[in-house]
Amino acid sequence: MLCCMRGVAFVPALLVSWSSAAFIISYVIAVLAGHIEPLVPYISDTGTKPPESGVFGFMINISALLAAITMYIRYLLIEKQNESSHFVRSSCNMFTLCVGLMGCAGMDIVATFQELAVPSVHDIGALVAFGSGVVYITLQSIISYKSCPQWNTYFVCHIRMAISVISCIAFIPMIVFASKISMTKIDWTPGEKDYTYHFMSAICEWTVAFGFIFFFLTFIRDFQRFSLRISTEIHEE
User: For this UniProt entry, which segments traverse the membrane (predicted)?
Assistant: First the structure.
């Protein structure tokens, strides 16, 4: 199916399918191994202990790479469209790309430094990943509106902005509730101290994470009409 897609639409499609699989597979393995409770764990909880930690780290690192490639192609696409329409400053487009790449770096940190092994570094990576991601999709939503109606439909723009707003709203309580948790653990059970904070923060975290996935899903149509060509020139002296 991915190979049959026009243009470079297979890139965001692969990102969405791979990232969804990364979350689901590590969750299923962690639950079946009895390492976490099945009711709304943190995403990082599903990749803390082996064997799921290896799967989680590998797949999230690949997701970060695919996200970086998708963001760069999106940057090139906007630059190409901007040549004729001039709907956004090139510096703004570059800034948006840099913010997105920061989020990818945060994902790599989350995948490399596990929650229980190096919690402070892991938490910083998660904050960078989610914070930069929310800013990135918000900026992309604004750019999408500026490109209307030539390069985007208002329907797609409304969907992107709705996802951005929901992600922004979920990101704030995710941080607030997480800051109130007084212990670092993964085997939470109802009735424990700080369980409510953990539960609410985890719901918000999953909301933001899948907000990113659904947002990149909207890139598929844009990428269908864009192809990359690599040209080589040989100069004789």
Answer: 7-33, 53-73, 94-112, 124-143, 155-177, 197-220
